[in-house]
Amino acid sequence: MSNQRKRPNGEREEDDEEDDAEGIGQWERAYVDDRSWEALQEDESGLLRPIDTSAIYHAQYRRRLRMLSAAAAGTRIQKGLIRYLYIVIDFSRAAAETDFRPSRMAIMAKHVEAFIREFFDQNPLSQIGLVSIKNGIAHTLTDLGGSPESHIQALMGKLEAAGDSSLQNALELVHEHLNQIPSYGHREVLILYSALSTSDPGDIMETIQKCKKSRLRCSVIGLSAEMFICKHLCQETGGLYSVAVDEVHLKDLLLEHAPPPPAIAEFAISNLIKMGFPQRAAEGSMAICSCHKEVKIGAGYTCPRCKARVCELPTECTICGLTLVSSPHLARSYHHLFPIAPFDEVPTLSSSNDPRRKLGKSCFGCQQSLLGAGNKPGPCVTCRKCKHYFCLDCDIYIHESLHNCPGCESTHRPKSVSLLEE
Amino acid sequence: MEMEEGEGSTEEKYDVEIATTASSLGGSGVFHIINDILGFVLYMHQQIPSVLQDMSLDFDGLQTEFTDLEAHLTQPDVKPVVRRKLLSSKREVKHEIKKMQKLMTTISTLQSALQLLIREAPDIQRVVLILGGSPLRPQKAYELLFTRGDNGLSFEGDFSKSKATEALSKKTIRALISTGAGSTSCPGPMRLFVLVQAPPSLNLPQDFLPKRDFRYNRKFVPLKLRFKCKTQDNETNSPFNSGTNDLIWFQCRHIVPCPLKLIEVSLSLVNNTQASILAGNRSTLLRRRKKMIFKIEDVTVYFPYDNIYPEQYEYMVELKRALDAKGHCLLEMPTGTGKTIALLSLITSYRLSRPDSPIKLVYCTRTVHEMEKTLGELKILHDYQLTHLGAQAKILALGLSSRKNLCVNSKVLAAENRDSVDAACRKRTASWVRALAAENPNVQLCDYFESYEKAADNALLPPGVYTLEDLRAFGKNRGWCPYFLARHMVQFANVIVYSYQYLLDPKVAGIISKELQKESVIVFDEAHNIDNVCIEALSVSVRRVTLEGANRNLNKIRQEIDRFKATDAGRLRAEYNRLIEGLALRGDLSGTDQWLANPALPNDILKEAVPGNIRRAEHFVHVLRRLLQYLGGRLDTENVEKESPVSFVSSLNSQAGIEQKTLKFCYDRLHSLMMTLEITDTDEFLPIQTICDFATLVGTYARGFSIIIEPYDERMPHIPDPILQLSCHDASLAIKPVFDRFQSVVITSGTLSPIDLYPRLLSFNPVVSRSFKMSMTRDCICPMVLTRGSDQLPVSTKFDMRSDPGVVRNYGKLLVEMVSVVPDGVVCFFVSYSYMDGIIATWNETGILKEITQQKLVFFETQDVVETTLALDNYRRACDCGRGAVFFSVARGKVAEGIDFDRHYGRLVVMFGVPFQYTLSKILLARLEYLRDTFQIKEGDFLTFDALRQAAQCVGRVIRSKADYGMMIFADKRLPLQTCRYSRHDKRSKLPGWILSHLRDAHLNLSTDMAIHIAREFLRKMAQPYDKTGTMGRKTLLTQEDLEKMAETGVQDMVY
């Protein structure tokens, strides 16, 4: 109960902090609506108690988790694991604005960099390309590729903003690129749009229909306000449209695009893909790599079909066109299909006389005590299957990084093995 | 009944024969047909609540209801009474869910068993569905016979439903219905058994029990269906010629329990809805019907949507009280909250609940577009009421408009404006023209009118809701003139939708609205300008052109009179005699107390005879000549003159020798003369009609009017353009007969603030006057008052400041900045055309316009309607394609009054300045003086009121629904003074409450940069996804349950 009561207050507190971070004149805000002072609590000796931000953070995280699992609930949704994503970044005049500090442009670049890393971490089999809009023209910064470093390098080198923005040009360019990729891949476009208008050479509605026809999933993240055309584009192509309130929000919105989206039903026909699992070249062997055309010693992989040398995995062999991956990559993509169910929150107040509660005084993950300050039971969660208790940190860690429940893994080992064998 | 399995020789009769074109049905076909018939049987015999396909939907509905109830229960502050009720209904729902679940699982296992069966033995031939206590004692039985194709049935592997199968099963069900299957319902709970005839090799012990010996009771006759395939017509008589002895019956183990008699339960609930709702004994079943029925005091209201806004509910409550009190009311509710539907549904429901005293609804709209919208809403409502109440809810509703909108005669419609359409129509339909046509076949008549006349009293509209389009279609269909038909039907209609003029303009009202009975409810929608409409209806202006035209008209009349004298002197004499007897004896002015007292013709006029000096046609023409000369002389003046009607009449009397009584009769005398002279092209005679109108008004009213003669326009003193205006100052004059005559008059609009001023202006006593706020899930409007430019200097359109370059630059800068922050559409309103032209010229010179065009395209409103329409169209296109656009428009212009800038077409409205009226105008000054003297309304008060209602009207264009959002900027330093003064100290706000409630104190005195910041923040906030229904604390969509709860607990504590 106390948790529930705390949460709304906590949110208000969050909002406050966000606003502060944006650097608005505080006198402008109507505190009357906020009532942030009521969130303050005194302890027994009358001292102000610092607001426990970790609980708030966790509550927010759980809300997100619930949302995700609600979307995936019911039927098992097919997910496109092999994604071909173009990130379109709008470097028009509006990107130079400074409502995000130091500028929208810098913030975009910074978070896109983080996104690219996160994206490849979650989707090792996928590829990214970068496109920028400047002076009303769309430029290809990098072609589709699986190496985060090269994308980031290309992105950081081009940080300047000028001219108008053109959504149509960008879509046409991306469409041209993505139309060629094989049918098993999921074609996606993620547009970071900072301008509020688009100056197009032709009828953008036609372009949108074209994208819809070739199943491009276009998502837009706006940086200033809702635009009708962006909303329309996203609705038509099945993408997400969101507008960032501030920097933190922008980051969240971007990272939302990292896990693979559910596959479009009519398109989700499973078929077989030929892949190669190249071996790492022996230490000290010298070869010219096929990707950079440079002589390299040691590091590199050999394509199992044509024996060409490539530097990084996953990639497509430049000689024979075979998709090259390593088995850990496949395994890492796997967890999207079978996510762990979100843990249930343990009500704190009633728990003291709950006999089950006595079982786990410490977190099953990190073995830390679950008792909070003053020997009161702190907030914790429990796995629905194995009924083990976990602390909030472990909860996040398990769901976001580990993707396996330690409790289930340890107790039900024989069964899970047999399941695998089946 | 002999039913021997395996005896092919017996001739069997089939109730239904279905032939397919396909050579064989195939396994999946058979399955789907069985499945569909199963669903049909269950549904028709009222064993399941809805058709099989919709079961899952119902199930989901129940489930959500259950969770809702649980959520309600967990709330800490639930009253014990409510809690008990909730608990009982929760139990009920739970029980139902269980039943439903059981039913659904049985049906699905039955389906899968059938699938298995077909997979095993694709060539089944007979399937029997038995409804009853046991298979041996059937109540109903359906026997399905599938004849085999030559190649036998084979199973293709999947059970997907093909189009052919679907068509076939539809055909089957149609055939079943036509034989009357399922028309009788079976009493008591029953079960459904499925029996299949299959080879004994079938081995599905899980699902099917072999049953060697199966036959019905001797007396029982099953309904038989046979599915015949095309290829084996030759062997239909012996379908079982091979191996039939091997077939035995199998009974499916899965028996559909059919425990629910849901349909009957819910039907009985509908019947005593009133009782159950009153008693708070709400049944969960009611919820599943999607629309709403609820009680307001003793009236059952039918509302054709699933949810209702709280303010709509309150609106209805107030309206109902006003109707009960048989009084007038004044209701302000923001646009976009569904005012129209609330009004319509309450009044029609009110009518239904009082069948003994049927009230008539007269709904007055401002534009034809609004009329169509209203009728569209009414149609939805009417359909809903029909489905619920059947024939007793039938009403006749129609829209009435001018000939231009209703005519179907292509030749008449070819005329370009309203007056010429009217004239063209009269040319074909006037009685003397038709008389002439009887002799001379060359005279053109309107076929539609002729056949309408022929049908005479039989020309009636069947009950229903007719929009203008429907009326035209109906007229075309029957060959009846829709215009005259509609006019005729007005006396029978329950709901009439037409324009203000039909009630307010005395000239029209006398003809159209005289037959309305006292019990009618009159609604004026969008009535914030009703005082102006009233005034305009009684104001006349005369220019040089008018006089010249009138002179020409008189010449023509003169010629006509001469011609008639020569040919048909009897007519003129007959008219003279009629006039002696007095106007009252004329057919169309029958003086019953029913007809609307014409303000232009006070009652006593009916008792008087036309004065002697204008009875003769020539004399009347002479009198008019003299009047024209006098007016011409007055127009030659050098100075502005202002006179009261009394002194005008006396000087007219002394100089031209026309006395007041003569003047009074001018309009009717002219009318009579024109009828006598058989003049049809009335549009050419407009000038003389105007003059006579003027004369009658001057002669009739001594107070509330003034005559103003201006030699030139104030704004252009060098161009002589003399104008003589008879201006009405008292809005109550025109509307008074309406208030007197009808029992309830409802005046409603989005902006009626301050609401206490209207009763004074229109001099009536409302029994209810209220202003409703908009309940919103989020703060979707953001009004701001901007007083200073970016350089902190005040901005205003005050006369001494408006041309100041600093102010113009600040306004420009504001727009440039805003345009770079606001997406899609921005609308700007200026105080006048001249000011807009001036400021845009300056902006063009200083390059501000160019800066704006970098962000958005710029469009203007002009005085030309076509140009403006084109500009608006392009503006919308620019908003759609993402280029963004700015629309420059003028307050009080066409755009400000009638065009919506909802959604992305208007994210921001900037109101540059306060749209005060042109205060130096003589007419306005005269009116102000009159208002002060008669109604004790201060000049300043009235001016601010008028300006702010215009401003509110302008900014109100931006938001048209709750899902919408928009910002409003009032850019004038005078505004905070006014808003503050009235909102804080006097508690009398001149801006409507729904804007004021969002106007925070912090937003009252902004400069450009602060406004930009707020705009940015607001737009970001609004772009976030939100929950439409609102949370528990701030509910904005009420369901039926909420309403009933409100009825218990009282309205206020629920809504806010």
UniProtKB/TrEMBL annotation, chain A:
PROSITE patterns: VWFA, ZF_RING_2, ZINC_FINGER_C2H2_1. Residues 12-22 have a biased composition (Acidic residues). Keywords: DNA damage, DNA repair, Metal-binding, Nucleus, Transcription, Transcription regulation, Zinc, Zinc-finger. Residues 84-272 form the VWFA domain. Residues 1-25 are annotated as: Disordered. Residues 363-409 form the RING-type domain. Belongs to the GTF2H2 family. This is General transcription factor IIH subunit. It comes from Brassica napus (Rape).
From TrEMBL, chain B:
It catalyses: ATP + H2O = ADP + phosphate + H(+). The keyword Hydrolase applies. Keywords: 4Fe-4S, ATP-binding, DNA damage, DNA repair, DNA-binding, Helicase, Hydrolase, Iron, Iron-sulfur, Isomerase, Metal-binding, Nucleotide-binding, Nucleus. It is found in: Nucleus. Its EC number is 5.6.2.3. Its cofactor is [4Fe-4S] cluster. Residues 298-576 form the Helicase ATP-binding domain. InterPro entries: ATP-dep_Helicase_C, DinG/Rad3-like, DNA/RNA_helicase_DEAH_CS, HBB, Helic_SF1/SF2_ATP-bd_DinG/Rad3, Helicase-like_DEXD_c2, MAD2L1BP_domain_sf, P-loop_NTPase. SMART domains: DEXDc2, HELICc2. Pfam families: DEAD_2, HBB, Helicase_C_2. PROSITE patterns: DEAH_ATP_HELICASE (PS00690), HELICASE_ATP_BIND_2 (PS51193). SUPFAM superfamilies: P-loop containing nucleoside triphosphate hydrolases. The keyword Isomerase applies. Belongs to the helicase family. RAD3/XPD subfamily. NCBIfam families: rad3 (TIGR00604). This is DNA 5'-3' helicase.
